[in-house]
């Protein structure tokens, strides 16, 4: 029998998986067009007297295309996904002292964006079957100060929006979908990011569409769209003079280079999403009978899953190996993988030490402190997820079905050879 690659055997997979980002002459041509046009900035002011430069920017073109693809009325492109969260929250009227319910199993931005506009993130546990916000736990996190909920469609798997929106409606809360992982994904045929009051996306380097960095807010609400536009343009008002500032805003514009790349990346999205979904579901089916391996549920409302990550959960006892050993073995078998987040967000020093005031971050109102040190008890599912998940990047799903079959072969091989670890330790 072949040994584990970790102990000198032949690796299951010898070819590399597809690289990310995917690009070709189209991206190159688009970037060069922007370069030679001299129009690098998405604003309009500097071009008023420049002959031969078209008025409409590529940023505006991209916003319109991305919104249309997702079925939203408005798209507002901005610097990052974090910026998009800040813009949408601020435009929804969330501000100092307001509480925003967020999951703890997500990237920091879902919780830091509320803090950056003076609001307070309140962590609520996730569902072990999907790793998304657990609707059954939301109401216990609601207080008289709660103003919004941010469900994250983690890894591109739609959160339970039916139940979350019903709770939000009953309590008068704004729902901001964090769709940073969910480009082109849908729930009951509706694209994610368009179902709540607003949705945000990220185009950071690891995401399913990228320009290195970038973000975008989708909404169907004209007032919210206008406010987002104003906040990302230094508080200007459309149709008013350039140097009139009406609100305290940011400069969160994207450049024409980013927009040109994103227009090309959007063209690739439908096919890439279909490939990732085909391969992700194939993996789910093939791993179903491996002892100690749990794949995530794909609930009935999921019509498109963007598989930003392929995630499985390892039951160390049932599988017969610890996660650290499993990850090391899988990596050496030629399957790129990681354990994902090492802890839920509230265990970060900034929360444990409640360091917002000391760091100069916005103050919560007097008498309004939140003790994040109790969250480990309140969020046992997120705690466990940080110990037992295995993440595989979406690029690995961009190959042929046989390419992902190698993942199954590697995992079965590790299971069959798990005793080699004990022998190696002797
Ligand atoms: C779930 C989630 N939300 C928000 C963000 C923030 O996006 P960005 O990195 O573009 O600021 C990320 C990015 O990693 C993310 O994973």
Short key terms for the protein model shown above:
single chain, alpha/beta, Aspartate Aminotransferase, domain 2, seven-stranded mixed beta sheet, three-stranded antiparallel beta sheet, 12% strand
What gap, in angstroms, lies between the N and C termini? Answer: 20 Å
Number of strands: 13
**At the first level of CATH, what is the class of the domain at 25-266?**
Alpha Beta
Structural class: alpha/beta
Give the biggest beta sheet: 7 strands, mixed
Helix amount: 25-40%
Structure annotation, total helices = 15
Helix-strand topology string: HHEHEHEHEHEEEEEHHEEEHHHHHEHH
Question: In the CATH hierarchy, what is the superfamily of the domain at 25-266?
Answer: Type I PLP-dependent aspartate aminotransferase-like (Major domain)
Question: What do we call the CATH topology of the domain at 25-266?
Answer: Aspartate Aminotransferase, domain 2
Hetero ligands: pyridoxal-5'-phosphate
Question: What number is the mean pLDDT?
Answer: 93
Large-scale geometry? globular
Radius of gyration from the CA trace? 23 Å
Which strand order does the major sheet show? 1-9-8-5-4-2-3
What would you say the CATH architecture of the domain at 25-266 is? 3-Layer(aba) Sandwich
Low-confidence stretches: 46-51
Strand residue percentage: 5-15%
Care to describe what's here?
This protein has 426 residues and is α/β, with parallel strands linked by helices. It has a domain at 25-266: 3-Layer(aba) Sandwich (Aspartate Aminotransferase, domain 2). It contains 15 helices and 13 strands. The protein has helices at 25-37, 58-70, 81-91, 109-116, 135-138, 161-171, 222-232, 256-287, 316-319, 323-332, 349-352, 375-378, 380-388, 401-416, 419-425, and strands spanning 74-78, 99-102, 120-123, 146-149, 174-178, 186-187, 190-191, 198-202, 215-219, 293-295, 302-304, 309-314, 389-393. The strands form 3 sheets. A 7-stranded mixed sheet has the order 1-9-8-5-4-2-3, sandwiched between helices. Strands 7-6-11 form a 3-stranded antiparallel sheet. Strands 10-12-13 form a 3-stranded antiparallel sheet. Helix 1 (25-37) runs antiparallel to helix 8, helix 3 crosses helix 7 and helix 8 packs across helix 14 (401-416). The two termini are 20 Å apart. Mean pLDDT is 93; it is low at 46-51. Pyridoxal-5'-phosphate is lined by residues 80-82, 106-107, 109-110, 152, 178, 180-181, 202, 204, 215.
